[in-house]
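Friendly challenge for the regulars: who can give me the structure tokens for this chain first? No prize, just bragging rights.
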Amino acid sequence: MTSKRVVLTGYEPWAHANSNPTLDLLDRAKERNLPNIELFTIPVPIEDGQISAIVDNALKEYMPEVWVSLGLYPGLSVIGIERTAANVRDFPVADNVGSQPFDEPIFSEGPYAYKATLPVKAIVKTLTSHSIPAKVSNSASTYLCNQIMYSALHLIVKNNMKCRAGFIHVPYTPEYVAGASYPEHEYPSMSLDMMADAVCLALATATECDEDIQAPPKGY
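First reply, four minutes later:
Bragging rights claimed.
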């Protein structure tokens, strides 16, 4: 089987937090030496003004067949496989350089939304069959996670590329929650080992499944 080129991105920590597990997940994925996958990992800054350019440059440099971005979702209790990215930047908090757009498009010429082109239901089925809690999530929110998902999907279409793309949200780690203050000290968490397994299984499923399965969703 020919190896497929895969880009995996993760976010640097927010200014108001001291860690982001997605950077660790990039390292874990590289360490796995996943079969039939040529993996390129990209740490992404929490900066609104850089995201679309980073995506555009990476798509053109690596010409991937699969693009997966990772992000942290505080309060999430399972792995969330995102279905939809909206063309809106509506930030509840500022990014790490103080940018806080609201009700602004990501691309002025882009459609209102894109559907992930990853096999989202097949990924959820793979994860749950390995005893990893997971769900289909219908919104990547309106913050930076949504922005990178929309940027990838839009630029793939704009550049007429053959690449499938989507986004995966992960919870906090137990270590972060244990040391957190109110209200985060009661947030759900998941071990980094389980999250790493989930990411690698998701990448394998994304590269092996050309079409998604037809099944009721796990999630709303």
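The longest strand covers residues 4-11. The helical segments are 21-32, 51-62, 120-129, 144-158, 174-178, 192-208. Your move, everyone else.
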